[in-house]
């Protein structure tokens, strides 16, 4: 389990997170909802080690990881699919996937066939450069690259942003399949309630660096959640 307990995060004198607590468990999707600029990405940066926290603790599988660098957290099974995808535009699709080998022992450094079962379009594009793919194809590549790492926690930052509806449905099916296996914890940041509602078991809503509403999906009032997401 991921346990984030009362963390603060600052950018200089500006505070981005205030006393934020959240958990994520294997076999479950935890979704963080909120408008732009409320701290969702800052929370993911804290969890993955991309930015240090100022207070509080982050535990993964019972171990304190708050001070570990990004690569150590990756070695412990935490994979991050950032907002904007961050594929390497000049590397081929195959080479982009192979960057996920970095945290694996030599014996495991191969692309599993399952990657192409999940994302068939990638198999036909292995020699194409990442920068030549559409936004939806790049998003599928970014998720596939994270799965190459054999993560036990995958952190997804707005995977539906700028993506055509057909690929949004494909990504939703992959997330639900991964959850159903019960081996992986999934932490999903979204702005769109309908996508989150279809996938998440637990929902947390952020505003101004705080968690202002949280609970199991079926226990939350949909109208209240939508009101907090409206501009």
Question: What features would you describe in this structure?
Answer:
The chain is globular and about 45 Å long. It has a 6-stranded mixed beta sheet with strand order 6-7-8-3-9-10, with helices on both faces. It is 33% helix and 27% strand. The chain has one domain (2-229): Rossmann fold (3-Layer(aba) Sandwich). With 231 residues, it is an alpha/beta fold. The two termini are 33 Å apart.
Show the helix and strand layout:
Elements: E1 2-11, E2 14-24, E3 28-33, H1 40-48, E4 55-60, E5 63-64, H2 70-75, E6 78-81, H3 93-98, H4 113-118, H5 120-123, H6 135-148, E7 153-157, H7 165-180, E8 185-190, H8 193-199, E9 202-207, E10 210-216, H9 222-229
Parallel strand pairs: 3-8, 3-9, 6-7, 7-8
Antiparallel strand pairs: 1-2, 1-4, 4-5, 9-10
Under the CATH scheme, the architecture is 3-Layer(aba) Sandwich
User: What is the straight-line distance between the termini?
Assistant: 33 Å
Largest sheet: 6 strands, mixed
Strand content: 25-35%
Name the strands of the widest sheet in spatial order.
Answer: 6-7-8-3-9-10
Number of domains: 1
Structure summary, number of beta strands: 10
Total helical segments: 9
- Please write the CATH class name: Alpha Beta
CATH fold title: Rossmann fold
Rounded average pLDDT: 95
**Low-confidence runs:** none
Name the helicity range: 25-40%
- The CATH homologous superfamily is called P-loop containing nucleotide triphosphate hydrolases
**Strand-and-helix sequence, N→C?**
EEEHEEHEHHHHEHEHEEH
Shape designation: globular
